[in-house]
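Q: How do we represent a protein-ligand complex in a form that can be generated cell by cell?
A: Start from the inputs.
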Amino acid sequence: MTKKVIYPGTFNPITKGHRDLIERASKLFDHVIVAVAKSTEKSPLFTLSERVKLAKTVCAHLPNVHVKGFNILLANFARSEKIPIILRGLRAVSDFEYEFQLANMNRRLLPEIETIFLTPSEEYAFLSSTLVREIAALNGDISAFVDKPVAQALKEKFSKRRRS
Ligand code: ADP
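Then emit the C-alpha cells for the protein with adenosine-5'-diphosphate bound:
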C-alpha cells in the first residue's frame, strides 16, 4: 500500500518553514500532496494560481511531492483524493489550540481521517507567511525566510502596489 499524506494550507506565500515540513514529510511518505486552499475569506495577497506556481517551484527538487489547488471543504478534498492523512505544522504552543480544533472538526466531518503534526527546524519556529508579507511590504530583507523565486514575487507584488 502506498502511503500518501495531504498538507493543506493557504501558502500565502510558501516559506522555508513550509518547505522544511514538506521535505520531512517526503522522507516519511511515498507521496505528499501540497494542497493550496483558495481561502477567499482571507483575501490572500497572491492568487491561487500564483501560490500554486510558487509552491511548485519551491518543491521542484522533490519528485514525490505534488502541488494542487483546491476550493472545497478540506475533508471532501482529502476524500476525493483518497488520502486519509492530513499533515499540519506546529511551531509553538500558540498554534496548538487552533490546530487541535481543526483536527477534531475534520475528524467529525470524516471519521476515518487522521491528522498528524510535524515541527520544523527551530530556525523556522517563529516564521509565518504573515510576518514575511509584513516585512516585505516595508522593503525588509526576507531572504532568510523564503526561497529566491518567492522573494522576487513578493518584491514585484509590493512594487506594483506602491505604483498603483
Ligand atoms: P493556514 O491558513 O491553513 O493556517 P498556512 O499556510 O499559514 O495556512 O499554514 C499551513 C500549515 O503550515 C499550518 O499547519 C501551519 O501551522 C504550518 N506552518 C506555517 N508556517 C510554518 C513554519 N514556519 N513551520 C512549520 N509549520 C508551519
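Residues 4-125 form a domain with the Rossmann fold fold (CATH 3.40.50.620). Residues 93-109 form the longest helix (17 residues).
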